[in-house]
Amino acid sequence: MRTHQIMARKLITVKADTPIVEAAKLMLESHISGLPVVDDAGRLLGIVSESDFMRRSEIGTQGPRIRWLDFLMGAEKAAVDFVREHGRKVSAIMTRDNLFTATEDMPLEELVRLMERQNIKRLPVVRGDLLVGIVTRADLLRAVASLARDVPDPTADDDHLRRRVIASIEKNEWQPIGLGVTVREGIVYLSGMITDEAHRQAAIVAAENVSGVKLVRDHLYLFDSASGLTFRSPKDESRTQTG
Fold it and tell me: BON domain: which residues (predicted)?
């Protein structure tokens, strides 16, 4: 399997001049922990994640000033820290150096090794310098990667079916957040995050109604604001397409 077969293509992004407050609000509303930063042409400039908001003057968590350490490290580090703690735009806190990315044709096993080795939760997918997708770290990622050694790549028909399933789901307001669709031999695997069980059933039905779908396997996460992220029990996780 390749990266393009599991990556999310409908992206939530921000610009470098987006106010930090707006970026934080967008992440909370979308239930995501990181945002790619792009320019007007869609070129990837950096990424901003939850950890970038930890040392901020608004909440009194800026790092303590240690004068002898500032003396040893020089004024440059103190200036950089000040910008990260007090800057008002995403450009002040985003990661732009040592930014790891994947390509669309990167094997899934290689992608997982990169995420594990660098301890990163999300990996932007680029075509040249253009952002075309993103892969986020989830419990299922390792399982899918382990299967990839023994399962052949999806056929051209599977790729065509995947595009139709995505189009069938994405046009609706209840579409899962970070929708992932994988198809092998007509079997559809749905992943992503939902905020209501009714959205799960709607996504399954939408996939079932795509001609050519043999089976739908549900791996959607339910986000509950009170208890956090929970994974649905594997029982009744698949439904056969009878039409």
Answer: 157-224
Q: Containing domain of residue 88, as a range?
A: 3-147
User: Which pTM value belongs to this model?
Assistant: 0.55
Does a structural domain hold residue 153? no
State both tokens at 109.
């096993």
The distance from CA 116 to its chain's CA centroid, rounded to whole angstroms, is 15
Distances from the Cα of 74 to the Cα of 17, 19, 69, 86, 87, angstroms: 28, 29, 8, 19, 20
Do residues 119 and 184 share a domain? no
DSSP state of 150: T
- Tell me how far apart the alpha carbons of residues 38 and 148 are, in angstroms, rounded to a whole number: 31
Q: What angle do CA 44, 167, 205 make, to 5 degrees?
A: 130
How far apart, in whole angstroms, are the C-alpha atoms of residue 207 and residue 121? 27
Contact criterion met (CB below 8 Å) for 119 and 98: no
Does residue 226 contact residue 203 with C-beta atoms inside 8 Å? no
